[in-house]
């Protein structure tokens, strides 16, 4: 873990960290520069959204970005069932994803892998921690909002796997279920967590989530990678106004 990454994650308890999500390989260095200029704390490479299937090209892009920014980098290579409709579907299988993550770990600062990726997540967590890198263990429901019982079962699995940050995102269909979701997540004080109510109804959770204990929030640099995602410049400005940092 580099010093920059360590210092950034120390801020988790003091203010929400802003993640700039890069959804494709087009004009990627321009997007990195934009992230540097608009107040992002971290970069997320949504590798599953890139419009090609070439391992060496992925590694080359990650290495080039590492040279262009001091921001910590999160590498995300989603399984098809948790990619959502906002991104181009990729068909990397679990063995391929494991190989890519392992090769990227010396370059990036953090990886995001699904709690449901049972065939590879345990080995990847062990490998990441050996290199002193962070692991986000995530769950996404693009159709409905997870209920309290389901959330608590996911948290139990997260703890058993020894992840570093628990991430859960669900689609908000009403204000009532969004508030229940935020309340449930606010009680998870023993872990670092990210929780996002996706869609227009839940958009406020991307700004106000820190009030309920969410440590990271994601903004878009070009196209959205999830429903309700806010442009990074707007998100950074609103967060600074609300939290005075």
Short description:
With 245 residues, the chain is α/β, with parallel strands linked by helices. Helix content is 39%, strand content 20%.
Low-pLDDT sequence parts = 1-6
Q: Write the CATH fold name.
A: TIM Barrel
Q: Could you tell me how far the N terminus lies from the C terminus, measured between alpha carbons in angstroms?
A: 25 Å
Mean pLDDT value: 88
- What's the CATH architecture? Alpha-Beta Barrel
Net shape: globular
What does this structure look like?
This protein has 245 residues and is of the alpha/beta class. The protein has one domain: Alpha-Beta Barrel (TIM Barrel), CATH 3.20.20. Helix content is 39%, strand content 20%. The chain contains 9 helices and 9 strands. The protein has a 9-stranded parallel β-sheet.
Question: How does the SSE layout of this entry go?
Answer:
Elements lengths: L2 H8 L6 E6 L5 H10 L4 E5 L8 H14 L4 E4 L17 H11 L5 E5 L6 H10 L3 E8 L6 H14 L3 E7 L3 H12 L5 E7 L6 H4 L7 E5 L9 E2 H12 L2
Parallel strand pairs: 1-2, 1-8, 2-3, 3-4, 4-5, 5-6, 6-7, 8-9
Keywords:
245 residues; alpha/beta; TIM Barrel; 9-stranded parallel beta sheet; 9 strands; 39% helix; disordered N terminus
